[in-house]
Amino acid sequence: MSKNILWIAILAFLVSCQDKTATEPSTNTVNEQATKAPAASETPKTSSMQESAKDTAVVNKAVADKAAADKAAADKAAADKAAADKAAADKAAADKAAADKAAADNKKVVAPVVQGKQPIKQQPNPAPSEIMLKADAGMTLAKANSLTKKCKSCHATDKDKVGPSFKKIQAAYGSVNALTAVFESGFTVENRKVVAADTKWKKKAKTMTGQYKNLIQKQVQKGKFTYKELAEAIFAK
């Protein structure tokens, strides 16, 4: 009887243990659920971080592209300015060289030290050109005709008369300053370029000297005109 009661108690205990196992989850099951739950919750967080990193990379690239474009534009502007400055400097240098050459051309004849006595330093006769034959801008044709009125008895514009034509005089002297210097030197024979170029005019040198003294030198001394004004008038013809 006591054995039967013992077996009944054991069976009851086993049954109660089975019920407890069925109702309570196992330790492994609980651990698996605990492990899986965080993984499921971490997936959205990782995706969000990736999207943020991608957006940051796009922004950084846009900023870098804009900086590169700004630098390229600044470099181009600097290059354009440098080119413009060089062109302006080259033009200024060319203009100065042209002005210096023109000034040098007008100083080819050296004025004498002693009036009427010392020969002027001879320079090669330049070929006549449109620029060389131009008179001073202030010398009008009317004024030139007035100043050379008395000269016309011996000279004409395009043809020789008693003396050489005005065009021949212009070609021989080449510039107003050259003719002015000869007038200022006293119109000495050795300084006269036309006489030096053609022997037929040398025979008339004495006549030319007399005309110079009466029609030019005396008029200049009276203040009627200057040697340069007369030279400009001859080159204006």
Structural overview:
With 237 residues, this protein is an all-alpha fold. The protein is built from nine helices and no strands. Helix 3 (141-147) crosses helix 9 (227-236) and helix 5 (176-184) runs antiparallel to helix 9 (227-236).
Large-scale geometry: rod-shaped
Provide mean pLDDT, rounded.
Answer: 77
Helix content: 55-70%
H/E series:
HHHHHHHHH
Uncertain runs with pLDDT below 50, 5 residues or more? Answer: 109-117, 122-136
Strand content: under 5%
Distance between the termini: 170 Å
Count of DSSP-assigned helices: 9
CATH topology of the domain at 141-236: Cytochrome Bc1 Complex, Chain D, domain 2
Features:
9 helices; rod-shaped; Cytochrome Bc1 Complex, Chain D, domain 2; single chain
Strand and helix map with partners:
Elements: H1 2-23, H2 27-105, H3 141-147, H4 166-173, H5 176-184, H6 193-197, H7 199-202, H8 205-221, H9 227-236
Helix pairs in contact: 3-9, 5-9
Give a quick precis of the structure.
The chain is mainly α and 237 residues long.
